[in-house]
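Feature request, filed as a ticket because there's no other form

It would be nice if the structure record came with a short human-readable summary line next to the tokens. Right now we just get the raw output. Example of a typical job, pasted below so the devs can see what we mean:
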Amino acid sequence: MSTLPLAAQTLAQDTHIIHTPTPSRDIAPSTSAGKKITLYDHIDSDDDDLDFPPRHRLQRRRPLPPLPDLRFEQSYMASIAPANGVWWKVVLITIKDQVFMPLLQGLGFNLALFGWRWWNRGVKFSGAGVGAKVRRWWWGVNNWGIPAR
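Raw output as currently delivered:
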């Protein structure tokens, strides 16, 4: 009798799993930003029964671009679509997207930061700009020794 609830739970979970998902059918629905909805289409320009003067009518502005869809499932399914269900291509695409690209982005960001620090360290007191002059003046006022290169 104790196996009946376990069997019912397993049956309920297994029936909802899609074992062969397809990007065209199983991708989450598009966002509402994909459709353009125009407001005040029912108001004609020659309506005289409006209770506000014409200068207060809505001004037409350039519409903003739609917000990008940042949901993981949709972008992941779109990126593995060229793999055509071949498992090793899916693994390669996943490793590229989830391991190598973040690693390269972090490496590039850190190299840029270290380069900036190295360059800025030498320019801090030897520059001819206003900031370097103020810094040298402030260190002189406080009787701090200006570090040697």
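Something like this underneath would help us a lot:
The radius of gyration is 31 Å.
The chain has five helices and no strands.
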